[in-house]
Specification:
The chain is of the alpha/beta class and 224 residues long. It is 43% helix and 12% strand. The chain is built from 10 helices and 8 strands. The relative contact order is 0.18.
Amino acid sequence: MRFRRTTILFDVDGTLIDSAADLQAAFNKLLTAVAHDPITREEMMPLLKGHASDLVSGAFALRGETLSKDALEKKVKLFRQYYEYPETQLTAPYAGVMETLTALREAGLRLVVCSNKPKASAVRTLTMTGLDDYFEFVAGGDSFGGTKKPEAEHVLKTLEAVGAAPEESVLVGDTDVDIEGARNAGIPHVFCSYGYSTLPLDELGVEVVIHEFSELLDVLRTLD
């Protein structure tokens, strides 16, 4: 069966790779340095759909501290250092990711990253996990003048960068930010239920769901 959607946009964290343990470690370095209690995984997960500044301010808010603008900028810089250069690298691809990406590429599909992470951080993460060679282009949250998902411009600029049309594309992601970004850009989405979203599926209004990454190839064959 031929694929109707031949350009596949991917989110990174919570979709291709599980980085939660390294993110939690980075949060806790920040928090414990100023005598706050460490953050639990359960507390952290609802924060992971935001931008770095949202993550850091949210973590400190959970401990009753509101950061000033200057303090937040400094904490975000430290957070990125702790996360991108961890003492112990725990981030890894989800089960079936490499095999499925190989199958998608062999089927002639174009694989592109559409992330809100800074591009350098996204590329570094993909390289560390052995996924960088699968993708022809990586768009980060700083690639197009600061526009990010769920803004349509971020998704559409990513497609424009690789010469792909919305009607031949689909976005694969794990949060409401990805779903809204796809909708705003006028393309379908595939939702990864194993990722970081803490919202019930019926609240998200998802169109297509996969519970394991290995299901993606068959799902893509069914999209109009």
